[in-house]
Design brief:
homodimer, 402 residues, alpha/beta, Alkaline Phosphatase, subunit A, 2 domains, 8-stranded mixed β-sheet, 13 strands
């Protein structure tokens, strides 16, 4: 599909806004009740629904609950099964580390080891960032022949290690035993591959050197390694679609995902309102704007229906500011549902709204799960088919064939 | 999909009519307005809608605007991306030239060259067919060692050249520079392939020989070559589906497309009413009837909403004549939308109606874009899934698996 789209792309001056409210889709807490989106007062979104078309979108496929990585890749038009991004690579890009083709990224946790080398606290007492950062920087002293090593702080007990050498493999099992009272596991390949064995040797050596450097620490005197990952080769968003793309997000992981596909990360907003400030400021510099709102997901994960309703209302409140900019295509959607009832991501469809001049206005009267699923003019479709529609409504695709 | 269908096909005496109203799908000219199909008085189509089921069909995929070739191949159940047919091959089949596997077809335009060999008129003053045909026939004198050459008139300044030799390649750029004041370009391969280089040599030699033969002409003393194309290997419609298929169309290109998949081209109708005459006349001789109505597309391309509405009404008016024949399955659809608002093909879905004894009658009350998209019983589906449904409703598919 992306090959087809890439061959048809046409440049023009239209602007596309994709507003992604993370985990927006929900469920009623009780049979016969309303979803978070139905419960919320959303006059602006409902007005958009009346002049747009809705569809029910599946992030990966029906029945599949996506993580944030696959959820966003689908929205950006990348087959999330083909471009599976390991946790280590996600974390590294989240802290803006520029991963290259010879890199294996690893998520590391400081842990506390007892005198026998067994884990007594898997998160090193949730050591605060101020205390952990100097320790992370100390680990940069480690040098191992045959491999370049990068060590990057993340937050609290979490940091990232990147091993760089030609031919390293990324198929390595976590060393975190997922329980206390046992030592960290040795790194083991999960596939029979020479490159993976070399990664394991370097990782083991790194662990040993780190333990020496951390020997005098009380909390963080050891580490576990998880999510070993190489970066898949991902075609650049601009090369595929011909749009200059800006990503506006508060959380590092979403910035990282956008950066992985080659979007520019714009601004340092801390709230949704500040994100719209950034959108206004960079409006003339880009054609495509990915705007990410985190808190519908966060409150869904908390299982807090009422707070999620408030977040939906916050989302609704900024719609007029986006409309005022006059996007040619405005999309409101989510990367997956996070119903408060489930306190987790879910497999349910994502209510997806497209507003554009040449949209066939459908029968829906409000922006909601039921409206989009039952009488949305866009029907039901997988997320990878969203970008082609966005580009079509923006007049950015040539005719296929004669 | 076609392999699956071919393995399940079952012959019986049922008859299927696929009525294709080219470019039928539309858009309101203004927000809140009606589409051409909604504006038109269509009592017969609406009556069919009440006793049939509708769906929203995508010719290629969401967001993709198809040309006529891919649009029709999809309707016939052939993956339009896999079976991409170049313009030269389309034009050749349009004039009923039986293209073979060793043929490269080329669309040629007579042009006017000045004394320096530069193009002064890209269409040779739109030379009338009476004048151009003798010149085309004259070009049949050209003989080049190593290649068989066929030259076929089309219309006005247009003709077709077919080069036939084993191993010729079709990946060659147009020689039409798309502007006047410069000479025609030399034919150049667009891929690094020996067969393409040979095609270029023959094409260049043909150009030189043609210029000699045309040297004394005032208008048509040169030519440009476009749309170099080999024919993909396309399985025959009858082999795949087991139906004897008749194509009834006014325009050569649609006859050509039908012929490419192995349908019989029946009659020489000049109007929709004459097409239905032909349908009546050949009713006993075939099982599947592709009836093509051109003018909904033409008026859409003109941007003439009111005239397109009239064409829709003309389409509606012949429905009773088709019903009288008693088809077991009657399909009304289009190869793509051509909204008058856009004056061009578009990516919007095609309202598609199936009437058959065993159809599950849906909630739609009228034949229209909104009805089919928002509450059509057939949902949203790609065009390649239309033929399997047609055959199923005709009782022409065996059970799959035990």
């Amino acid at each position: 599909m992306q090959d087809l789209i890439q061959g048809l792309k046409k440049e023009n001056t239209t602007k596309i806004v994709m507003l992604v409210s993370d985990g927006l889709g929900g469920l009623p807490m009780k049979p016969g009740g309303k979803t978070e989106l139905e419960q919320a007062e959303t006059p602006n979104l409902d007005a958009l629904a009346k002049r747009g078309a809705q569809g029910a979108m599946y992030p990966i496929a029906r029945g599949i609950t996506p993580g944030s990585g696959p959820g966003h890749l689908g929205l950006f038009g990348y087959d999330p099964v083909k471009y599976l991004i390991g946790r280590g690579a996600l974390e590294a890009t989240g802290v803006k580390f520029p991963l290259g083709p010879n890199d294996v990224a690893i998520r590391c946790n400081f842990c506390t080891l007892d005198a026998e080398g067994k884990i007594s606290d898997r998160r090193a007492g949730r050591i605060p960032t101020e205390e952990s950062t100097p320790l992370v920087l100390k680990l940069r002293e480690i040098s191992i022949p045959g491999v370049e090593i990068f060590v990057e702080p993340v937050k609290e007990h979490r940091f990232v290690v990147v091993l760089r050498a030609e031919g390293l493999g990324g198929k390595v099992a976590d060393t975190d035993p997922q329980r206390e009272g046992v030592p960290p596991l040795d790194p083991k390949p999960t596939e029979d591959c020479e490159g993976c064995r070399r990664t394991c040797q370097f990782a083991k050596k790194f662990f040993e050197e780190a333990c020496k450097l951390l020997a005098d620490e009380k909390k963080a005197n050891g580490l576990t390694m998880r999510g070993f990952a190489k970066l898949p080769h991902i075609p650049r968003f601009e090369d595929v679609y011909g749009t200059r793309a800006a990503a506006i997000a508060v959380y590092p992981m979403y910035k990282g995902l956008a950066q992985l596909v080659g979007m520019d990360i714009v601004g340092e907003p801390a709230t949704l309102s500040e994100e719209i400030d950034v959108l206004e400021q960079c409006w003339d510099d880009y054609d495509f704007f990915f705007v990410h709102f985190k808190y519908t997901d966060s409150r869904g994960e908390d299982g807090d229906f009422d707070e999620k309703v408030k977040m939906v209302q916050e989302l609704d409140s900024i719609i007029p500011r986006i409309e005022k900019l006059g996007p040619d295509v405005l999309i409101v959607t989510c990367d997956h549902s996070t119903p408060a009832k489930l306190s987790s991501h879910s497999w349910h469809s994502c209510p997806t709204l497209i507003v554009a001049d040449d949209v066939r206005v459908d029968m829906t009267e409000a922006y909601s799960e039921t409206e989009s699923e039952c009488r949305g003019g866009l029907g039901h479709f997988p997320a990878v088919e969203l970008m082609p529609q966005a580009l079509a409504f923006a007049g950015r695709l040539e005719k296929f064939g004669a």
